[in-house]
Amino acid sequence: MGAAVRCHxxxxxxxxxxxxxxxxxxxxxxxxxxxxxxxxxxxxPLAAAAVLLAVTVTDRYExxxxxxxxxYRLGAKGILASRHGRDANGSWAISRCPHCGAITKARxxxxxxxxxx
Length: 117
Prior knowledge:
5-stranded antiparallel sheet; two-stranded antiparallel ribbon
């Protein structure tokens, strides 16, 4: 499992700064939750860490519109708002294409097999 997690957070063999920041915020938040009585205050860095880590993992994927076949990235709002899944044909996200405006079940344009090689 370690190699699978590592490949998501790494780009060209280096750890992305967003992933480092997310990990540090998570560590600070967990330490604060365990060591102090102000647990509500420490939920803020934990929430920020969750958003940073989610954006780091999903920001690198491009999707292809099923109507106009343009490729695009979802962005932070799209990541949080769109429904994602995986079927026999690969990963997909239901999203609005920024080029033609159609809402389609956009297919992931990059496969995980290409990243491994």
